[in-house]
Specification:
- The protein contains 15 helices and 12 strands.
- It is α/β, with parallel strands linked by helices.
- The protein folds into 3 domains: 131 residues, no CATH class; 149 residues, Rossmann fold; 198 residues, no CATH class.
- A 6-stranded mixed beta sheet has the order 4-3-2-1-5-6, sandwiched between helices. The chain has a two-stranded antiparallel ribbon with strand order 7-8.
- A hairpin with a 5-residue loop joins strand 9 and strand 10.
- Helix 2 crosses helix 3, helix 3 runs antiparallel to helix 4 and helix 9 packs antiparallel against helix 11.
- The longest helix is centred in the middle third of the chain and has 37 residues.
- It is flat and about 90 Å long.
- The two termini are 57 Å apart.
Amino acid sequence: MFSRRLGTFISNIIAIVMAFLIAYTFRFGWEADDTFRNVNDALVLSYLLFCYVAVFLFYRGSNVAGRRGLLRLFKEAFLNTLFVAALFASIVYMAHISDSIPRLFFGYFFSFYFGFSFVISGIVHTIFRSIQAHHKRQTVVFTDRKDREKLIKNLLRDGADDFEVIGVAVLDAKDKSTFYRVSTEMPGTLTSKAAEAGLVQIDPERLEYHFERDEADAMTFLKTHNVNLAVISVDHLDRERMESIIDVVGEMGIDSMVTLDSFAMETFDSKMEDFGTLEVVRFAPRIFSELELFFKRIMDILGAIVGCVFTIIIGIFVVPAIFIEDGGPVIFKQKRVGKNGKYFYMYKFRSMYNDAEERRKKLMKEGGNEMDGAMFKMKDDPRITKVGRFIRKTSLDEFPQFFNVLKGDMSLVGTRPPMLDEYKQYSSHHKRRLSLKPGITGLWQTSGRSEITDFEEVVRLDCYYIDHWSVLFDIKILLMTVIAVITGKGSE
């Protein structure tokens, strides 16, 4: 990985210098006696190199180095060029030298840089793939999984181009194992030769695997053959036996690797992380990257700023109407439960009478709750004022929550935050709906919230949202919310 990163770094430095020289020639022509007369070449070139180094250090690109096709290389070259261009534009603007750099030169440079970056990256990638093809680590896999071929394909597909599986030890529950030698057959003679040379990439799904049972056991094979690596990938195996395999393999001077899914259930994501000075494995139903959460927060802040402006404008009309009908306060502040059980105060334009909480307890005793489970909901709720019915029907009562979003207690899109007494009734699986920040709107609200009376269905929708979350999914829900508000669907 270090060699590949170093090759990528050097190739892009070369691409920057080549693009700079060619862009200069295209824009100003070339005179050997008066080179770079129209731009401050040393300063501009140093800025460009600095921008690339900064992008290289902070933008990792694809984690799967070995499986890069032309489309992935094209995408990474484009993103790399885009980030360098954005950073360079910011620097020259702050340094007040933008007037000394012609726009045409700027356009020439980044056009050529993108092309050179894509082409040279492809060449470097082909070179490294060719080197890997001749220096693969001979690998034996230890597993208790039934589908051996699927396991090998998954290992190859997930980016391990630098190893070749030559044997599989199938473990059973009686401390015994059956060993199979593994051979592969590639589709097409010409393709096979090209793949062996590292010039083309073969999809692991197209390879044919042959398993030949060996009379010797796995440890005998490791001792008498060229083996560089042992991979342990299991579903059910006690720790003592796993340690025994690692110990015996280690005594031979052979490295061992254990796949993360050997420690987790299929329904959980797993990820290696630093925890202080320790290296740990995190397990979660869904693991979000810091970049994903960063973009979600940026979208929340931008949306909240706009929403707060609208809240102030709406408040000019709504606040007097609420005060005239039932006095103050006009803003309803209630303690709710947020992400992972954190308490916060949620704001709304008050749509109920001041004694609504006392009335709710009475209605609960009288069986007025129409929801099945840990949530209160009632059609034609007698606690709602006349003004309250209007602002609820139009969802105007929700607008002060944009201030909650700006504070960071809530998100634009998420799950609805429960009240304290509802939260106290939660079962273990209910709390999972609080694994993301609560939102002003969400999948439940856009799915006809007034028609859903089963709390378990609410939880199911919330968990579906968490499992399938993306920025595009949030945008889709926001658009669905606008439509729901306009049509009045589910707003009762």
